[in-house]
Amino acid sequence: MNQLIPTFDFHRVLVAPWTDSFGSYIWVVAMGFLVTMACGLVGNYLILRRMALVGDAISHSVLPGLAIAFLVANSRSSLAMFLGALVAGIVTTIVIETIHKKSRVKQDAAIGIAFSSLFAIGVILISVYASKVDLDQECVLYGEIGFVPLETFARLGNITLGPPSVVRMAIVALLTVLLIVLFYKELLVSSFDPGLAFSLGINATVVHYVLMGWLSVVVVSAFESVGAILVIAMLILPGATASLLSYRFPVIMLLTVAHAAVSSLLGLHLAIWLECSVAGAMVVMATALFVLAWFFSPGQGLIRRWIKARLTEPEVVPSDAPLTGK
Amino acid sequence: MRPLSQQGSSRVIRPRLGPSVLHPLCSIFYLLLPAAAHAARIGDISDTNVWEQALRFFTFQDPSVRYALLGSMLLGVVCGLLGSFIVVRKMALVGDALSHAVLPGVALGFLWNMTKDPFAIFIGATIAGLIGTTVVGLIKQTTRLKEDTALGMVLAAFFSVGICLVTMIQRLPTGNKSGIDKFLFGQAAAISAQDIKLMSVVTVLVIVAILLFYKEFLVTSFDSGFARASGFPVQLIHHGLMLLLAFAVVIALQAVGVVLVSAMLITPAAAAYLLTDRMHRMLWLAALFGMIAGAVGAFLSFLGNNLPTGPFMVLGATAVFGFAFLLGPRHGVLVRWWQQRSRARRIQRENTLKSIYHVLEGRDFQGEGVSLRELAERRRETIEDARRQAAELRHHDLATLHEDGNLVFLTPAGWQRACAIVRNHRLWELYLTNAAQIAADHVHDDAEKIEHVLGEEVVRELERRLEYATKDPHGRSIPGLADMQKGMAPGRSDELVGYGKRL
Fold first, then answer.
1. Residue A141: what pLDDT?
2. All structural domains of chain B
3. pTM of the full structure
4. I need a labelling partner for A19 at 20 to 30 A (CA). Which of A158, A190, A249, B380 fits?
């Protein structure tokens, strides 16, 4: 037990990251924040469209796209990676739609079939071409966010920017914010009311595929740091937590960003304490925040509901009243 | 947790699933036991020729091969059977969430006594899976989040806890060699005799449960409202199914891995769903497909060195699904495409025949042949189109072509078909005007469609109801059975011979 859970050393866990090794940990937190924010913002639309599990599917199925991009381009260039992921993401969407529309298999089963097959192809490619593909199974599963500070820092002229993956993620996150600001109305309307969107002349299919394409870009840039499976947490947890705290969509978006910041910060400390996977710990903290919101949300929390149920007059149901609901 | 020694845990666990229970159920697997002592792991085999490996696989001399194959097939059967129910219940992704949610349970089961004790892991994983599905239900009930979000969150949250635990275990001095990471992608080669025992117990349990509660599972899967009204304990059956599902996921972990177990639940069952409309046949097929996928996965991963089993198994299942999707006799995409194409061509042919009939009728059945020009004018098409259609008729022995293909003569079969189509059309028009009181100028389009699908029995019934009328609402003759069989124009049997030829 002692070996498993190291003793909680206040200085080591909470102080040292910000004093002695500030230069490396700040990048881990920054990376975690950027990944969670970009994913969380896109994820909000997935939640609204009830497509959370399509996000799960795409996060799995970018893997073969990445592996093939590595094999074809023979390098770890960002462009090849993004292209591979984009193609894989779109292919997944098309495969799901095809199976769903052309046969009587329902959408949930179609999602399950599509992503598991593509993911299986990816894993096989990685294990067969292990020497050629610069990815390993652990990286696929829970990423290497802890290795971010070890990269050679990117430079622009004389200015040292930071680790290349953080810079890349920052660009993706900025673009995500930009896209959402520019197409706020289109995204919102087509998510809430496809009929209204159609009558306003918004092409819902184009919006759908753009969203899926951008989702694959975000997922692939998050892939290296958090792996294929934890991405789904980054996609859903911030938005789900935020939507328990507010009904207003702009507020939900801001809360998503706040959730991203808090969970990546706390996650780092948890990982330092327990000496475990950093990405895993960040998701654990994100989950903890969700549980807090679930219980203590001022408007919709469990405790609030309980109090409301206690305060309202207990309803007397006549014994011969018809049963409703459950 | 360490003080609990191996003895302690075996004292706790064994009585539940002790040999007394196992003996009668799986005595066959005991036959395999003596060889287990020097079982080589598949992963230990160094680089050898693929064909040698294949030969080794099929001779089954290697006990680890037998365990891997047997285990993969057993899990395929269990996953196929239970997967059928979750696919028809539209709960496919519950299986996905459940399979990810078991990971912390696997890790805790491992921590119980720091070995891969199948029973401890089994119990830990089952509990974790059940907690996961319960939390999904709670989130759905008490928040405004929808099911997909709840599933995704539980999946990710439990999986992240599991990942933290696994990375912590791997940090331990004993943990690194534990092989707990094999639970992520599966290694059928790591299946031991003990695992096989556990798997066969679960298989028997699942089969018995399905046999005993087939009706209950069936009714609650397809019509839960009816089931509730008939007094079935719907919730209880749901939880029972979840429990069995957790069992299935847990025994599949070793070979398929946490990440891809859901595919073994969904894909074989979905393939079976495409091939049959009967639940019991779907169960048989899904079990068979699961078994095939399991065997294929075990075989392919054996060929290479240290390849994971799970992905190959999943691809095997996907291949089966692909075949069913494309070539399934009733719902296959290619099959349906072919059927639609041949139906469209038949309708095209029949329309050409009808036009020829109309041309003949237009000149009172004078002269036998119909020129391409007449046909093209009638159909308002180019000569080339008419030529192509005439060739198509000839290809099907419905017409012969003369004078360099410019003159079309119907064969007896072609004449009959043409009469039948025109008859169907006019009968239907008459029926619509008489029985459905539709205006005579509104019935043509409907008749254009129905003429190609009316069967002989329906036609006889229509004729009877219309009292063997001979004129359609537009005043034209309806060709009768006699006209068709004599090969003569309607109402002219005394003057005409052949297809519109005068005596």
1. 66
2. 49-330 (1.10.3470.10), 332-503 (1.10.10.10)
3. 0.77
4. A158
